[in-house]
């Protein structure tokens, strides 16, 4: 069977983190008090053999406008959160899943009978460069000596961002993406308690240190689900397309319109997309505040 390359391109999800970069105060697990909004979220579909998207299960399109995506994603005040599975997100020390502080929205898909999988073939994380002056020299960080205390640290919010895709139909797990190692000087993952730059700055400046056992426990749990690195030329399956009539929790979709799309054998899929700032990331400290995060991802439906 031939491989189909019907591409749904969801491009430019720009999230603005408008917190003020402080010289002293909360660093790792910072709190952003200002409003974060979607600057632009445009969607287009490169038409091919029967691949469509919907926000409500009723109206199926090959194009989602910027306005439609802004409405779906909404405006949010970001807080640093952590997630072991890309589905439930938690604040530091909390056992109750967060309901705010991150972006979340659903996308429904419809395809013809010979399409089986929805694949991410490209995902990029980028943003504006930001800076922060620590006002103190902290050994073990990117600072090289005491004179660096007042030298601005340059970074990007994209280095601490995470994006997850959860198949709403066939699985209770998700796929998590983070910035690729080396891109914009990004350090992959969480490091250790002794090397995590955010923790080093936090413990040097704040009155009370972050507890080492808390970090070690979190890092061990997070390591159980490896992330995918952002990039191009990816072949990461994030969801399946299922027979018409498959239940999508929370949605009653129009089966007649699916028949028009793909006949009696039309298929459906559904993905929940989440975007957040990972609180345990090595670069989740004040150097990333006031930056602009841009997330671009492309879906491909294949046989």
Briefly say what this structure is.
This protein has about 300 residues and is mainly beta. Helix content is about 10%, strand content about 30%.
Number of H/I helices: 4
Overall structural domain count: 1
Radius of gyration: 21 Å
Q: What structural category do the secondary elements indicate?
A: mainly beta
Provide mean pLDDT, rounded: 79
Order of helices and strands: EEEHEEEEEEHHEEEHEE
Q: How would you sum up the global shape?
A: elongated
Low-confidence stretches: 1-6, 17-27, 31-48
Strands, count:
14
> How does the major sheet shape up?
7 strands, mixed
The percentage of residues in β strands lies in 25-35%
Give the end-to-end Cα distance, rounded to a whole number of Å.
7 Å
User: What portion of residues is helical?
Assistant: 10-25%
Fold and architecture overview:
12% of the residues lie in helices and 31% in strands. It is mainly beta and 303 residues long. The protein has one domain (6-302). Strands 3, 4, 8, 9, 10, 12 and 13 form a seven-stranded mixed β-sheet that branches. Strands 2-1-14-5-11 form a five-stranded antiparallel β-sheet. A two-stranded antiparallel sheet has the order 6-7. Strand 8 and strand 9 form a beta hairpin. Mean pLDDT is 79; it is low at 1-6, 17-27 and 31-48.
Properties at a glance:
single chain; 303 residues; mainly beta; seven-stranded mixed β-sheet; five-stranded antiparallel β-sheet; 4 helices; disordered N terminus
